[in-house]
Amino acid sequence: MSAGVSAVSSLPVSIRGLSKTYRVGFFLNKQVKALQGLDLEIAPGQVYGLLGPNGAGKSTTIKILMGLVRASQGQALLFGEPPDRPHVRRQVGFLPENPSLYEYLTGREFVTLAGRIFGMSGHDLDQRVERVLGEVGMGRASDLQIRRYSKGMVQRTALAQALISGPRLLVLDEPTSGLDPLGRRQMRDIILAERAKGTTILFCTHIISDVESLCDRVVVLVGGRRVQEGSVQELVSAKAPSVEMVVHGLPLEQLQSLGFAYEQAQQLDSRVLLRVPDADSHPLLQAVLNKGGRVSSVQPARFSLEDLFLDAMKQAGGQTVGGEIQ
Ligand SMILES: Nc1ncnc2c1ncn2[C@@H]1O[C@H](COP(=O)(O)OP(=O)(O)OP(=O)(O)O)[C@@H](O)[C@H]1O
After folding, report:
1. pLDDT mean over 286-310
2. Has residue 317 been placed in a domain?
3. Which of 21, 51, 60, 177 to probe ligand 1 with, by most ligand atoms within 8 A of CB?
4. What is the 73 CA–ligand 1 centroid distance (Å)?
5. pTM
6. Does residue 54 fall inside a structural domain?
7. Beta strands 169-173 and 324-325: pairing type?
8. Which of 177, 221, 238, 282 can bridge 56 by disulfide, Cβ–Cβ 3.0-4.6 Å?
């Protein structure tokens, strides 16, 4: 085996040129391009976040990786092999978006069933079920039928089934959806505990604070294409430097007529907050003072992942929702 092949096979996830076109419409004569040539590699032990607006192709990527949807083009491999191989699937725990569980089973029965499907049995399985139900905060409610559960309880039980086999790779589609603030905190703690064990984690979400607090690396998808990729720190610090200035004594309209390309211009009570590229900060300061305005603060702007995400969507030509329809 060549070095290149063994490197790929050790990667929990490797995606090359992945495209997916869905056929839609009454006569299936229209196409939605959900993914357009996506490349992605996830190294062992990383927590990897898939970010993107509605319809960006996040769930489609995850479904292809889980063997639930066939790619139109390209390749998606788990541990160097196609995702539908049983010994590959055994190493993966999956939490789908909107999990739909067997409603007439109790949480404990459902998680036990999931364990049996993974080939576990006996005392080991019972102990493991107890442990994962405890980890997701479902110890007490686990003997109630799932049809009696709230959305958050279903989500926690679905996570318990994803964890039951002690997977090497966890794939979580919107893991904090439906959870209350305590549930979100617990989900974050579980993700961090899994990372500490060396589990590789891929998850998609709209919740940027979750990405900032959990992810080693992030990919931003827009319209089925990768528009940003890197660590949160890399992405945020790669942004061109800007300056924020707080101005008193001049109305927003007058400041807007000065001819600067503001990245942000916002009225704050009687003050105005302006954000401009670093190179414009001195000319702007001069212009404000010449017009009789006062400046109470000038400081380097701090960019968050949210700013970056909104920028990425703008750069992608305003196509923010859904795949490309033809
Ligand atoms: N089964 C399907 N048939 C037809 N079109 C589909 C199907 N599944 C997804 N799509 C379309 O593919 C595009 C990508 O959808 P996908 O669910 O992957 O996006 P997403 O990023 O997960 O969105 P969200 O954040 O809203 O969950 C969308 O335009 C969606 O309408």
Report:
1. 86
2. no
3. 60
4. 17
5. 0.81
6. yes
7. unpaired
8. 221
